[in-house]
Amino acid sequence: MNETMVCAVGNVATQPVYRELAAGPSARFRLAVTARYWDREKNTWADGHTNFFTVWANRQLATNVAASLNVGEPVIVRGRLKVRTEVREGQQGWASADIDAVAIGHDITRGTSFFRRSAKPEPAVTAASPPRPEPDWETPAEDSTADTEQSEPATAAV
C-alpha cells in the first residue's frame, strides 16, 4: 500500500534477459537515466550523473519486453522502487536500485514507434475439462397470439 512508485525516463543499457520460471515469464534489463542540465557558461545542454536501475518485468509484460526492447532505445518505465543493500566481499554499503515494472513503453519524444497488440494465449484444453459447446443465442419462435394476449394491459372496471 505504501510503496514508492517511480517513473524513470532513460535508455535500455543491456539487452533484456528473458526467463521462463515456475511462476511465469520474467525479464530484466538495465536502464540508464542521465540527468541533463543547461550549462550557462557554455550556453548548451550538458549531461549530468547517470543512474542505473535494474528493471524487472513479469508475466505478459516480460514477454512483450523481450520482443520489443533493444539496447540504446529510449524508454519510459513506471513501477515500484526497491532499494537493496548487501554485504559483498566483506564491504557493507553496496546498494542497488531495482524497479518492479508495471508499465514500459518507448519514449516517442525521441523517435517513432509502431504498436502491435500481442496475441492472447489460447486457454489449454485438458482431458479433465472437455470443450464446452457454444451456447444457442437464438430465441425460440413463440405463438404470436400468446404474445398479444399477455402484452395487452388489463383494464379494471371502475
From TrEMBL:
The entry's keywords: DNA-binding
Extent of Acidic residues compositional bias: 136-150
Region Disordered, annotated ranges: 116-158
Pfam families reported for this sequence: SSB
Source species, domain of life: Bacteria
Signal peptide coordinates: none
Lipid metabolism in keyword set: no
GO MF, any single term: DNA binding
Name the record gives this protein: Single-stranded DNA-binding protein
